[in-house]
Amino acid sequence: MTPLPDWQSLSLAQQVAQMVIVRASGHLFDHQIQYPLWEPPAARLKGWLHDLGVGGVILLGGSAAEVGLRTQQLQSWAKLPLLVAADVEEGVGQRFAGAVWFPPPMAIGAIAAQDLDRALTYASQMGAATAQEALAIGINWVLVPVVDVNNNPANPVINVRAWGETPEMVSQLTAAFIRGAQQYPVLTAAKHFPGHGDTAVDSHLELPLINHDKTRLETVELPPFRSAIAAGVDAVMTAHLQLPIWDPEAPATLSRPILTHLLRHQLGFAGLIVTDALVMGAITRQYGANEAAVRAVAAGADVLMMPADPEGAIEAICAAIESGQIPITQIQASLERIWQAKQKAQPLSDGDTSHAWEQLPPPPIQLEQLAQPQTIATVEAILRDSLRLHRPHPSRLEISAPARNLILVDDALNCTCLNRQAPAITIPSQLGYHLQVVDSYTPAHPDSLPNEPAPTLLQLFIRGNPFRSSASLIQLAEDWLQSLLHTDQLQALVIYGSPYVMDHILTRFQFAPDIPYAFSYGQMPTAQAVALEALLGDLQTESTGGREFTD
Predict the structure, then answer these.
(1) Residue 204 designated active-site
(2) Yes or no: is domain 387-543 CATH 3.40.50.10870?
(3) Is residue 148 flagged as an active site residue?
(4) Can you give the pTM of this predicted structure?
(5) pLDDT computed for residue 2 by the predictor
(6) Of 192, 204, 240, 247, which is the active-site residue?
(7) pLDDT tens digit string along 160-169?
(8) For domain 32-54+61-349, which architecture applies?
(9) Handedness of CA 506, 511, 513, 517 (dihedral sign)
(10) pLDDT score for 548
(11) Of residues 198, 234, 276, 410, which has the active-site annotation?
(12) DSSP 3-state percent helix, strand, coil across the chain (nearest 5)
């Protein structure tokens, strides 16, 4: 295999730039940019890639096919091949339409509680499918798996993104996912070190505090990271949280005792240490953009994810090196690790020795690798095996008019899991239900709405929501449930998202035994179809003259 270009031929600023990952829109054109505070227009982004020589991008937005074109465009702008990353914790389809959207990892964790071998198979299949679809559209670094142990039901930011609530289960499913992903030349990342599962604060907004002692942290939080490292994970992403027992001053992302002494030396991790996004509130509220970047590198980070000011961060780190604050040998060690990661992510074709590595074009888009039937079947199987269903006989479900399909979501205008063809809308519509959508911006209380009483199918889309607490949405759901139960209109209930919300509602309200309900970890259209066909199967048979609905 032809070796990578010698990083020592780069200037100091170019070397430091290779440690920086910038945010980029997955869309092709500037007028499509959805997050202008974080996603630069094309001219600035091209300057960062070509002139500064930043080492990679993290993408969000766009269809899978569009992202395939986008990754080739971005690679063509860069002098050296890029690391192209994406947060695809629920498969590539979670972020990029057209690819396959998996249920959140906790769905597989729920299956593991009943059938560990089946869950391990699912986790491995999920890892393989995620890597395969990412590679097909030019993404070579999947920022997964989440290996936090979500043992705090009030956790607003991890929640169903975790495999489960025990270190043993999380460790086993983590290793299975990584083994599956390793079938493809795509990098993985275990996050969020040293463990974000027991927090009740969203680090996108503020800095969480974990006050556990070393024994607790070493027996609960650290084992999944040990498992990930043993399985060969390529990177470990830091957590923006405070752990006074290990560092009473700095958050983990900026802590040398945590990143270098604990992760690098004690746990023996030899891969990339990458920060969580440095634009998150837990960091920006206390540290300046350039100060945070310098502190993260000094702490032992190899890769800086989304510094608020890439140019300023590079200049500040160079100044810290020249002043002796950061040893040049540490930068050299980081560059060696980055080079090794890039070589794994974009290897030469078998037998190809005619070109230097850096001169090869990016691999072609392979859209035929997306949404393969076996991957879709795996998603449906996970959803069915993790579905919680209560279908009493007799039940209140019957075709009657007028009937209402009441859907509650956080933000109806930005809900990616709902459109006109979403099963949560079309299946009840076929049965004669009239649609009503309510979100957090709906001004009226349920009791004040001028709707005629009607048998109501209530569908709640509620899960942990980074950047915005779901507490108000839960309260809104409780208000609607209270009103529907008080007026005896609740016919059936479906909850998509958080099992903690489902458990809370079942405890909070005393449902009559003839009220059926279903819970799905997934919120995407496939999850809606699986849940509603399981719940409404008898009604569907009646409405189609005895013909069962099939997938």
Answers:
(1) yes
(2) yes
(3) no
(4) 0.92
(5) 43
(6) 204
(7) 999 999 999 9
(8) Alpha-Beta Barrel (3.20)
(9) negative
(10) 36
(11) 276
(12) 45, 15, 45
